Amino acid sequence: MSGRVSAPGDLDWDEARQAWNLAVDQRPAAVAIPHSADDVIAIVDFASERGLRVTAQGTGHNARAYDTLAGTILVKTQEMRGVEIDAEARVARVAAGTLWIEVTEPPQRSAWRRSPARRPTSASSATRSAAARRGSPASTGSPPTASSRSSS
Fold first, then answer.
1. Looking at residue 25, what DSSP letter applies?
2. The 3-state secondary structure of 32-69, one letter per residue
């Protein structure tokens, strides 16, 4: 894995588990900060083999969304950033940790202007829509688990 993993007792543990909302004390089993989709696959496989849940956090704004992170690997995607726009196909590929401002900044904005009438949707709403069609836990607001991933 090219990213990093922090666990209780590691020197960077407090920093790794910290959310944007400093009033929230997140205490997952581990925090993984992937750099690529391959890293995410490795994290989910690792968790699945050990019976751990997995949940993702882009910026930490949703830190209070879960009652507990016990037995969960918190995947913080803030280092997975990037925007690719195919204006002709009217498609944007946005990495999981990308901030919305990075999608709407020039030159991205000018690429969308060349594309008639269609604007990008947020990654989170697109993910929820796709999850709802599949009936996955992401559509219910529950954190996804390794077992729910392998059963789909």
1. -
2. EECCCHHHHHHHHHHHHHHCCEEEEECCCCCHHHCCCC
Q: How far apart are the C-alpha atoms of 51 and 48, rounded to whole Å?
A: 5
The pairing of beta strand 72-76 with beta strand 30-33:
parallel
Instruction: State both tokens at 84.
Output: 């690719």
Question: pLDDT, tens digit, for every residue of 77-117?
Answer: 999 998 888 888 888 888 998 888 888 776 666 666 655 54
Distance in angstroms (rounded) separating the CA atoms of residues 46 and 60: 23
Say what the pTM is. 0.66
Residues 6 or more apart whose CB falls under 8 angstroms from that of 39 comprise 1, 2, 3, 32
Characterize the bridge pairing of strands 72-76 and 53-57: parallel
CA–CA distance, 36 with 135 (Å, rounded to integer): 26
Cα 141 to Cα 101: distance, rounded to the nearest angstrom: 24
